[in-house]
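Task card 7
Instruction: Convert sequence to structure tokens.
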Amino acid sequence: MTATVHLALQLDPNALDRAAAVLTETLTATRAWPGNEGLEVIVDDADPTHVMVVESWATAADHAAYAEWRTTPEGVSRLGEILAAPPVKTVFSERIPLGL
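Output:
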């Protein structure tokens, strides 16, 4: 079953000038991970320090393997350098059939 992951980030206002570079570096590895089908970063219209990484995964297991890799020395990113608060991750893998 496919999974959509939302990673809410609160960026440090003093790090906005380097946020795009750090996000690009970090998310290049995410996009290359087996099972990642795409991602984008969207910015809150009312608060440019509030961004959401929206990821699409072939399966929830693919995302779980990726998330586990991120806890290893090889998977560590520089994301913490630009954050004002810990990220909040939500994984959506169940769907409600609407019959539309």
